[in-house]
User: Which sequence fits this backbone?
């Protein structure tokens, strides 16, 4: 998948590499637990990305992006832990993180996001 984010090309992988995926499973479990708790308390659809942003540390966000993005035209070497430091938090980082986390969640056809997907809250950014 290729996207244009804030006028810059980003190419996503079709799936996460094993090392990044394995290392992110603990973060995914935390997100799942928080999502389940929010779903039990909510009357409407759960804000999945709100949960993601409240649960993830910046190093985990970086790992999601490094696992999901094959290449980009942004400054920053994707092989380095500092790759996200020059991105604008709202117009660049937020859409890239959203796409990256959703790539991980949807790689195995997970149905757990069905309710959120119906609300439109999990749609990857269009640019």
Assistant:
């Amino acid at each position: 998948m290729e996207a244009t984010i804030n006028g810059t090309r980003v190419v996503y992988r079709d799936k996460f590499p094993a090392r990044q995926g394995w290392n992110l499973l603990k973060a995914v479990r935390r997100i799942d637990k928080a999502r389940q708790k929010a779903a039990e308390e909510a009357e409407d659809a759960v804000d999945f990305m709100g949960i993601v942003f409240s649960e993830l540390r910046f190093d985990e966000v970086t790992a999601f992006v490094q696992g999901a993005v094959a290449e980009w035209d942004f400054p920053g070497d994707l092989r380095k832990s500092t790759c996200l430091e020059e991105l604008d938090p709202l117009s660049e980082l937020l859409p890239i993180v959203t796409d990256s986390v959703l790539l991980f969640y949807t790689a195995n056809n997970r149905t757990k996001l069905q309710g959120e997907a119906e609300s439109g809250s999990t749609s990857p950014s269009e640019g």
Q: What stands out?
A: The chain has one domain: 2-119. The longest helix spans residues 89-106.
